[in-house]
């Protein structure tokens, strides 16, 4: 362990360093225990077991230091065990761990709500309710929209991902592994075509929006529609960034027809894309915005924030939950949100995006199997294809990820077709680690 003053406290040495094969013997032993104790439906993508993490590395129980290109799926934007978060959580634990906000309140919940009301897009009066997970917040956003509009139908989009609960599985597009065998799903959920520039044959954003809106009007009708919900940049579906003009056109149609426009910013929120919220890239002002993941530095917290008249439409007691807005998670969130504002992390995300885009575009120029480079800020991806046909190549994608894992890079795949590699590093990662990690990706393509 070394002292890294740039991160404000004792941190791990910031380098990739392997002392065993991956996984090492201690991780293998723990993985065997996992198989005997944990339900097999709970998978572990990379079977190394972490002992410490910080900056841009995770260190496993065998002493291997791996470059973190995943951030626990976009959660640890401020880094693992960020000193300000640790301090805030420690102080809160010493005071009290739980009362249930809907029984006896506490200031931390209000502080988080005030911050979200002030920072989320839209100059209108807002209210916030806190929950535990992204899926739980999505469920509540739909619940609120239905209560406000007195309508039931909801539209989600192709390739979208919104969670693993019954309603959010219905909203989620991809069957395996998220939905297969778990039905029947919640009713009155419909799907519209997404703008997917790499596969849309030149369709512009407004044209793609018209295609989606026409389908919605014909199959559902605005008079029956409570809400449309969309990720400004899709996450699990493949980091699909819709063509310019698509999101504003859908939002404008929703506003004109009394439909609640919900932005699911669970993965895109909190500086990840080079703005505090991805909706800001196209000037969106969602009626409701759903946040989670990066909100609390790794502690479980989520939120629905939106127009006061919509949020306040639910009756007293209609929203809440035993752990929603837990005081420890709220303390972490206050410290985390302050870090995003004060520590230059929004700007850092843009710098990270520039570094990744430059290197990934160079790889693409040299290797036709990389069909597309896309994303914003510290949310970048490559789509891997058969260069002769343009068809998705999931097998090669799996080989690239496996090579990275074996060589000390935590790397995530995604996409409806399983052929996208996504890059979600902590915003505290160094340029040197990014360069080293991308060298491993380059070598993976050479070896494949």
Describe the fold and architecture:
The chain has helices spanning 25-37, 71-74, 83-95, 107-119, 134-149, 166-171, 205-219, 246-256, 308-311, 327-342, 345-366, 394-406, 431-447; strands at 2-4, 9-11, 50-54, 57-60, 65-68, 126-131, 153-157, 189-192, 225-230, 260-264, 288-291, 302-307, 370-376, 379-384, 409-410, 412-414, 420-423. By secondary structure, the chain is an alpha/beta fold. It has 2 domains: 2-81 and 344-447, Alpha-Beta Complex (Aspartate Aminotransferase, domain 1); 85-342, Type I PLP-dependent aspartate aminotransferase-like (Major domain) (Aspartate Aminotransferase, domain 2), CATH 3.40.640. The strands form 4 sheets. It has a 7-stranded mixed β-sheet, with helices on both faces. A 4-stranded mixed β-sheet has the order 3-4-5-15. β7, α6 (166-171) and β8 form a beta-alpha-beta unit. α12 crosses α13 (431-447). Pathway: Amino-acid degradation; 4-aminobutanoate degradation. Keywords: Aminotransferase, Pyridoxal phosphate, Transferase. Its EC number is 2.6.1.19, 2.6.1.22. Belongs to the class-III pyridoxal-phosphate-dependent aminotransferase family.
């Amino acid at each position: 362990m070394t002292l890294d003053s740039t991160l404000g406290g004792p941190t791990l040495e910031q380098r990739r360093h392997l002392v065993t094969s991956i996984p090492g013997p201690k991780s293998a032993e723990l993985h065997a225990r996992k198989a005997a104790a944990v339900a097999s439906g709970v998978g572990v993508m990379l079977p190394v077991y972490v002992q410490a993490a910080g900056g841009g590395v995770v260190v496993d129980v065998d002493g291997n230091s791996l470059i973190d290109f995943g951030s626990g799926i976009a959660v640890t934007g401020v880094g693992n065990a960020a000193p300000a978060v640790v301090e805030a959580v420690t102080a809160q634990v010493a005071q009290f761990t739980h009362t249930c906000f809907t029984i006896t309140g506490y200031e931390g919940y209000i502080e988080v709500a005030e911050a979200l009301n002030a920072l989320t897009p839209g100059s209108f009066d807002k209210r916030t309710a806190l929950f535990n997970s992204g899926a739980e917040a999505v469920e509540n956003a739909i619940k609120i929209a239905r209560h406000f509009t007195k309508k039931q139908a909801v539209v989600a989009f192709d390739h979208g991902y919104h969670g693993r609960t019954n309603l959010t599985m219905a909203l989620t597009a991809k069957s395996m592994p998220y939905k297969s065998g778990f039905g029947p799903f919640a009713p009155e959920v419909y799907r519209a075509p997404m703008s997917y520039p790499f596969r849309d044959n030149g369709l512009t954003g407004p044209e793609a929006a018209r295609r989606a809106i026409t389908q919605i009007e014909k199959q559902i009708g605005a008079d029956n529609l409570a809400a449309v919900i969309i990720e400004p940049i899709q996450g699990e579906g493949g980091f699909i960034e819709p063509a310019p003009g698509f999101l504003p056109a859908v939002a404008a149609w929703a506003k004109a027809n009394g439909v609640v426009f919900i932005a699911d910013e669970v993965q895109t929120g909190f500086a990840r894309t080079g703005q505090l919220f991805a909706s800001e890239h196209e000037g969106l002002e969602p009626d409701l915005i759903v946040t989670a993941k990066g909100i609390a530095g790794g502690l479980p917290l989520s939120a629905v924030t939106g127009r006061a008249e919509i949020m306040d439409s639910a009756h007293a007691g209609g929203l809440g939950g035993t752990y929603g807005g837990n005081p420890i998670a709220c303390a972490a969130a206050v410290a985390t949100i302050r870090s995003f504002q004060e520590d230059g992390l929004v700007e850092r995300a843009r710098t990270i995006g520039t570094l990744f885009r430059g290197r990934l575009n160079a790889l693409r120029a040299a290797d036709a199997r990389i069909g597309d480079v896309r994303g914003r800020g510290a949310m970048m991806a490559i789509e891997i294809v058969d260069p002769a046909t343009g068809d998705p190549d999931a097998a090669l994608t799996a080989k690239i990820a496996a090579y990275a894992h074996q060589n000390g890079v935590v790397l995530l795949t995604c996409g409806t077709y399983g052929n996208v590699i996504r890059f979600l590093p902590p915003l505290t990662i160094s340029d040197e680690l990014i360069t080293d990690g991308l060298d491993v990706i380059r070598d993976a393509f050479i070896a494949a």
